[in-house]
Every structure is written in structure tokens, then in C-alpha cells.
Amino acid sequence: MYSIFLYTAYSSLILFVVTFLIAVLLRNNGIIDILWGLGFVAIAWVAYSFTEPSLAKNLILGYVTVWGLRLGVHIALRNWGKGEDFRYQQMRANWGRHWVIRSFIQVYLLQWVLMQIVSLPIVIGLTGSLSISPLLLIPGIIIWLTGFFFEAVGDYQLTVFKKKKSSKGKLMTTGLWSLTRHPNYFGEATLWWGVALIAFGLSGNLLVFIGPIMIDFLLLFVSGIPMLEKKYAGRADWRAYVKKTPAFFPRLKVG
Length: 255
Prior knowledge:
This protein is mostly helical.
């Protein structure tokens, strides 16, 4: 497994370096957001090439591929023609003449390291040799499907909402967004637990759960919910939305 992990790490590092060079030419670090999902797809396919196929391993490969491609395409279409995201613009302004080297270290290299941690259930699961129990496989499938539904449908609903002229300046508070303020983040976190559960059944290795734990930490406390909600702090409609809608776990809608 260790040698395969090195292969996947090197493969994803090449992707990050190439993306960094393109970003320098375009002066747009926002393209790394597209790479996040695609990088996991590359890792999954590299790891899969070293293993003996099985139903559960095919599911991990398929789940990661579908998730990663959908996310990459979604972000690419969302950002098309809009220039560099404000977060990276602010970083560029703060870093001044050191923005190139600091971008590589603090944006690309850091995300690459995080990707290696989050991808542990992928690599460990695809290199596992155990026969998975249905008691782990079926819940893993259900959890992944639930997470993917919330992420994909949540993103779609928000995209449709933003395209309407009548939505300008308003908050998305209907559909899945009436159950949780961040259905896409909830979905992202949930589907990784599904992958980890299947990977655990294939390997018996508790390290597979480091991946979803890291995702939960990032979304709940670092670059996910805190950063996005800070943008809306102070708005009256946001305060009203917060009072009736949980931040992460969906509430059961009654009536």
C-alpha cells in the first residue's frame, strides 16, 4: 500500500504543479478550485490500476469519479468568465511581489497535502484485500448516495436561483436550503463517510476515517462554513435565516 500511496501522491503533485504554472500565466489562482475534485479522480484511477477489481472497489472508483467530475465541471461553469475569486485576489494583494512563491506553498502545496490526507480511504480501500460485509457495504452506499444527493441537488438549486434576475441580492432559502444553510457542504462531508465505511470493510484499517474527519474539520471550522457565513454577517435577512435554519445538519421539516 505504501508504494501505491507514493504513486498517487506523485501523480497528484504533477497535476498541482501544472495547474500552478497555468495559474501564474493567467494570474488566476482560482483554477485550483476546479482541480480539487479532479485530483481525487486521478488518485482513485492510479490506485485502482494496482489492485484486483471487486464490486466494492468498483463502487469506490465509480463514486469518486462521478463526484470529482461533477464537482470540477460545476466549479468550472460557475467561475467561467468571472475572473479570479475575491479570496485569491486578496491573497495576491497581501503577498505583493512574493505572490508567486507564496501561492505555490500556501495554496497549491497546502491543498496537495490536504488531498493526500483526505484520499486515505480511497487508497486504503482500493488496496484492501478483505471481503466486505453487507453490514458495511449497504450503509456505505446509502450514506454516499445521501451525501451526493445533498451536494449535487443543493448546487443545482443554487445555480438555478442565481440565474433568475429576481434573485439578485436575495438569499437562497428554499428547497434543500430550507433544511440546512449549507446542503452542499453537508453532502460533501456525508459522502466521504460513505466511502470511508466501504474502505474500512475492505481493509479493516481505521486510518480510512482520517479522510472524512479532515473534511468535516475544514468545512465546519476553516474554509467552509465560517468563511462563507462571515460574508453575510450583519444582514437582517441572514439573521432571520439563521434563526430558523441549522448551519449543517438538515432539520426534519414538519408540516
